[in-house]
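Before drawing any conclusions, I looked closely at one protein's amino acid sequence and its backbone structure tokens, quoted below without any editing.
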Amino acid sequence: MKAISCLSPTTGQATDQFFEIETPHPELNTRDVLVKISSISVNPVDTKVRNGSIPTHSRGILGWDAVGEVVEIGREVENFTAGDRVWYAGDLTREGSNAEYQAVDERIISLVPKSLSNEEAAALPLTALTAWEMLFDRFGITQQSSGSILIIGGGGGVGSIAIQLLKAKTVMTVIATASRPETQDWVKALGADYVINHHLPLEEQLAQLGLAQPDYVFSTNATETYLQQIADLIAPQGKFGLIDDPESLNIMPLKPKSISTHWELMFTRSMFETKDMAQQGEILHQLATLVEEGKVQTTMDTVLGPINVENLTQAHQLIESGKAKGKVILSGF
């Protein structure tokens, strides 16, 4: 099969780090399905693995967001059959979706919403799992939760789905940050109640809007640059969560208010085969229902074309520029 590899991850930009290879089809574990890849999206984790800042056991085939058709199943697979159209975010310790075929455990996949195209669907799994796990597993937010939440980086992949999940499943007030006019319009369209600029003092903007201190703060990027501001503006006994990878993070400023801190990595369940690993498949199933009900929309923004060296390089460069709005998609070989 064809695949795009970066066998020797190096630091720096994406240029000249990818190349096409021929490799055997993946071997299936007993609970694996073999998926023929239709569409993928590119995430910051792809760039971090490529440049070596996140080590994996992969041989260089990146990609952790995919939509495709099941063509073969392992002998203990119970819930899927050949011909099923599925979506998933995969496993950081296994070969990724930048290939014609990928093996993935049935416990972390679900059927794709019928109303979405392959490209539209590929935008959602990883970011939705990340947002869902932070909001509902780590923070413990429920349908009965009230108060407010501040999402730093509301225009990005995770922020844009977090806004939608909160509006679909809670009555909470959602405050999102965005700096450019196009991203400000984007997060408003997704349902954010208020939008503030993360390049300006956050607490002052909240005060100008007459907003109380938020009970939750979800930081999706550049957390180390906002930590003191978060400590100042969050409500006492609030909850703070992050998903990025600061070189260092001193959370002592959070102690006076007894702020709980939560770090989310959506690969934890698959990497460690936790007892609740199948919860990821269930989350994707519930997400599909929300999509079919019209409560969550795709966060697809840019479709670059087929999965090849040129387009993957461009996708990585766009992600690393920090200017991506929503998700970057590639489709077909």
Remarks:
- The mean pLDDT is 93.
